[in-house]
Structure formats: structure tokens, C-alpha cells
Amino acid sequence: MRIGPAAAANMAACSSVPCSFPTKPDPHRRGRNTLPSSHLPRLPGTQFRRFRSLSAAAAPSASRLRPRASVSASAAPSKDYEFTDGNGEVELRLDIQKLGIESSRDVFVDVNDTSLLIRAKSDGTLRTLMNVQTLFDRIKSSETIWFIDEDQLVVNMKKVEQELKWPDIDESWESLTSGITQLLTGISVHIVGDSTDINEAVAKEIAEGIGYLPVCTSELLESATQKSIDTWVASEGVDTVAEAESVVLESLSSHVRTVVATLGGKQGAASRFDRWQYLHSGFTVWLSVSNASDEAAAREEARKSVSSGSVSYAKADVVVKLGGWDPEYTRAVAQGCLVALKQLTLADKKLAGKKSLYIRLGCRGDWPNIEPPGWDPESDAPPTNI
What we know:
The protein is built from ten helices and 14 strands. It is of the alpha/beta class. Strand 5 and strand 6 form a beta hairpin. The radius of gyration is 24 Å and the shape is elongated.
């Protein structure tokens, strides 16, 4: 997967899925949130009391859009190396005792800023010892050194981002889920897009991986009103549901370490340009099903969407383009989201702190140009941004 910042003022990053990630069958089924009852958002009683006597209808089944390309289902290789991270560099040690390597001339280490290939000649055959197509982060390839230390091949690499802790050598699901929290710093993640089912499946996968609390606004709304979203939309219209979800998002905006799945479609607050006040309290990820023929076209499609601002989802911090959807590929999509978030937060190291400040000042709707304390959103006074 190739991740990069989209050419837009809001620093969005783009990722395209599917790609060659290990996958697993989707474990998620629609269920209740685990938020304690004391943390459930309080919806205005006069507005929703009349819905409590109605029974909730069954939730719609998940749609299955077949992906355009297959995703590798190969299992992650077992570790046969030692990896350490410290003082601005990472070190890799491979046991070569059993290979019968006679000298360093039989070892070939090919490295660039984002990948590593190690091969060795043994018994007249050139063998691949390690092929890391995507390192956890960029390195200074020109400063890489390697040598043989008794029965081990040692490769020492200098990190570009010296403060970033590498959980492992590669950008795997395990490495990302372990390493991304140091960049998120507790700020929540909001998943937006046209499909509620996709948003919820991916949000739950991310939350389980990084140890955050999964929250689905649809479940909170249905619990508060005793009515399914579909029935509510049919009886009251999409505007009422979108307004109610905004109330939920306002309540959740003060929470940390959550992954929030929002409603998809016109009934979702994220589909309205004027309902993003509280979504900006977290890192927002737009999941967009694309009809693009390849990754380059998908990236260009995302760039145009963000730069034109033609849809409200373009307000999101990152864009992840999907080549279709099937629950089996949930982890691949979730991994794409984490890669994009890592790219975003490394590109702007002050972004998490800025999100935190926005929350502390009350999510007043002045994102991304945060006004000084005491600023009144209703005031006609000219802004003085900080």
C-alpha cells in the first residue's frame, strides 16, 4: 500500500484498499456498546420520549460489495529474528549459523528508505532471508551498516523519526496496532462514510486492535429511542436523525480513547456540512467506496474530492478508498486506516495537541483555525486565530 498526504489544505492522507494484507473472517456482529450506562449520551427528553413506546425494528443486513482485487490470506510468518529499537536507530539480528555462510561476500543487503531485502548464498543457491516490503517507518538508507557477529547477521538502520518507537521491523497489523497509540495520544477516532455497516465493522476492528472503546452512534440512538434507525427515518425523516446524532457526538466529544462509528447516508450528521463541530474533536477517517480502476486513479479521485470540498466527508482528516466491500476484508481496511493515520500524525506532529486544545476549549466549531479562549461563536467580531 502506498500512503501519502492528499494535496489539500486540511492535510488529508489517502489510502486505497484492497491490497496484500493478511485477513481474517469478520468477527463482528451487530451488538450493544459496552459504554457504562452513566456514560450514555442524554438525548433531549421532550424530543424523543414519544419514541420509547415503539418496538425497535430489525437492523438491515450488511451489504456485500465484492472487491475488485483479491487480498492475500497468507498467515504472518513466524519470527526468526531479533529486533531492538533505541537511541534513534533500529537493529535486526538474523541467525545464519545453519546456512553455512563462509564470508560476508555471500551476504547481500539491499535497502532503501522504506524497504529491506536480505539474501545470502548458501550451497551455491541464493536464498532470501528477509523481504520487508514496507518498513514500520522511513530510515536513512545511506547510513545503514551490516556485519556478521559470530553466528548472526546484524543490520543497523538509522530512523528518520528518531522519537518514534518501532514495535517491529515491518508495518504489519501487529506493529501498527501497537505503535499507533503513541501518535494518537488518546485522541479518539471517528469513522465516517456512506455505509453504517462498513463504518461499524471497521471501527470495531480498529478499537479491538489498539485497545480503544468501540462506540456506534446507531446503537446509542436506538437504545435511547427504542426504535431502529430505519423506522425512525421512515417516520420522522433524515433531518431529525442527523440532528439527534449531533447530540450524541456532542456528548462523546469529551471522551478519549474511543473509536466512534457514525451513521452513513443522509441520516448521518457527517453528511451535513454544518454538523462537523464535534466530529473535529477526533481524528476523522472517511471510508469511501471507489469505482477507480487502480490505486493511482483512486488517489486522484480522493485528492479531487478533498480539494473541491464537494461533499461534507471531505472535511475528514484522512481518506481511505475501498475497491468494494466484503466483511472478510475488514482487517485490511482497518489496517489501511491505521497506516493513513500514522502518515497524517507524522506529517503534522502538532495535530494531536491541536485536537486536544479544541476539545478543552469546548469544540466551538472554529476548527482548524482555533480562536482564543473566551471567543463567542455567535459574535460578529472579526476572528483572531491562534
